[in-house]
Write a structure and sequence with these properties.
three-stranded antiparallel β-sheet; about 55% helix; binds protoporphyrin IX containing FE; alpha+beta; globular
């Protein structure tokens, strides 16, 4: 059966980001429960296997070759190993637990975005709006707020977003090898130093109502706070902007926007479905720490496993506001186990806020022009220009 228009647009985004990634994610439908693929290692698109791997911290790690922590240890320093995966991680997560609750996330979005969202609402009433650009500006503003950096206007927000993007791009090509070349390490360190330049002052002086001030109150020292800030920047930048643009497109392409406009209380369903169908972090890698059996196969210490979360999450079908909660995938788009996304509540609040603007006037929107971003880590729209229908 041919894919529908919404799925075709999504597949095009994946292919534009990285053709090899798109091929892996689609062919990966056969990697259930688990397959060994030359050069890549073990691959699985089975949500139950993914959960088993992500919650078995004794057998799998993200700080050895094959995991994202391995990348960051090279950039931030060896202390990351203990803080990302050792006992220090448990301690850090326990203390950081209340950084992004539902209510603190809503406060953060209100504080960082309300005036810009107001303007977006007016822009949408007046004519076409590039939602992909808007998402980058909004996320850039959030980054400034989280990092204690000034963001006086859209240009500054966009630049901040682009700097976060450049940092993430250094991880490009790490699917088969997470060892960075020395010049990549130097570039990444330079970007981290620039982006976290505001952290020491904010950590010392900011009030407890700010993220960095709260880090201090929670007992995170300056190095931990700087490391966490760098992590937020990478983990929460492109992922959030990708989900925002793509969900607006999906609501349009599937026609579900009409339903949402008629039933605004379905907003949380639109957010959940948007995150499921886009799964902005489409693959999660782990390194096998010790010999272990998974789904009847024997995995050996030192091997790697790629969990195709996009493939697992989208196996149920396309965007559908009526799709019930799926217990087997749960919120796999945010990972699982002890590294499950720390910013999940913030990501949901960000997406809700944008969809609130899109639906606020009760008018459906039309996509006038769209273009995918090319050669990037997270599949996303470079441009998504929409216009609201007149009247209503
Ligand atoms: C739609 C948006 C987002 C998606 C899909 C997403 C997805 C994920 C996933 C899959 C992981 C687990 C990675 C792994 O296990 O290797 C993760 C971890 C993380 N995310 Fe997110 N994320 C999003 C937004 C955010 C935001 C907005 C922030 C904060 C500003 C954030 C902060 C983090 C952090 C700090 C971690 C590492 C947690 C740890 O290792 O303990 N994320 N995210």
């Amino acid at each position: 059966m041919l894919p529908d228009a919404a799925t075709r647009h999504e597949l095009r985004l994946l292919a534009a980001a990285r053709p090899a990634l798109a091929a892996l994610l689609v062919a990966g439908r056969r990697a259930v429960p688990l397959r060994r693929v030359p050069r890549l290692g073990w691959v699985s698109a089975d949500p139950l296997v993914a959960r088993e791997v992500l919650t078995d911290h004794r057998s799998f790690t993200l700080v050895a070759e094959g995991g994202v922590g391995h990348l960051w240890a090279q950039v931030l320093g060896d202390w990351v190993v203990e803080k990302f995966d050792g006992p220090g991680h448990h301690d850090l997560r326990t203390r950081a637990r209340d950084l992004f609750t539902e209510s603190s996330a809503a406060r953060l979005v209100g504080g960082a975005w309300s005036d810009r969202l107001e303007r977006a609402r007016a822009d949408l009433r007046a004519g076409p709006v590039d939602v992909a650009y808007l998402a980058r500006v909004l996320v850039g503003r959030m980054l400034g707020t989280l990092l204690g950096l000034p963001v006086p206007d859209d240009a500054a927000a966009r630049d901040l977003f682009a700097t976060g993007e450049r940092l993430a791009a250094i991880a490009l090509g790490s699917a088969a090898d997470t060892t960075l070349a020395p010049d990549a390490v130097a570039r990444a360190r330079d970007i981290v130093a620039r982006l976290t330049a505001g952290v020491p002052d904010a950590w010392r002086a900011a009030g407890p109502d700010t993220l960095l001030g709260r880090c201090r109150e929670l007992g995170l020292d300056l190095r931990e706070t700087t490391g966490l800030a760098a992590l937020l920047m990478v983990a929460g930048t492109e992922t959030a902007a990708s989900a925002m643009g793509r969900t607006v497109a999906l609501l349009h392409d599937t026609g579900a926007q009409h339903r949402l406009l008629a039933e605004p209380d379905r907003l949380p369903d639109a957010v959940r479905e948007g995150l499921r169908v886009t799964t902005p972090a489409p693959v999660i890698g782990r390194s096998v720490r010790r010999d272990v059996s998974v789904a009847g196969r024997r995995l050996r210490a030192g091997e790697r496993i790629l969990l195709l979360t996009w493939t697992a999450d989208t196996a149920a079908g396309g965007f559908d506001l009526d799709r019930p909660y799926a217990p087997q995938t749960r919120q796999l788009w945010f990972g699982a186990g002890r590294h499950q996304c720390l910013g999940a509540a913030l990501a949901r609040a960000e997406l809700s806020a944008l969809l609130g603007v899109m639906t606020g006037d009760g008018r459906p929107w039309r996509v006038l022009h769209r273009a995918p971003a090319r050669r990037c880590l997270i599949p996303t729209y470079r441009e998504l220009t929409v216009t609201a229908a007149p009247g209503a």
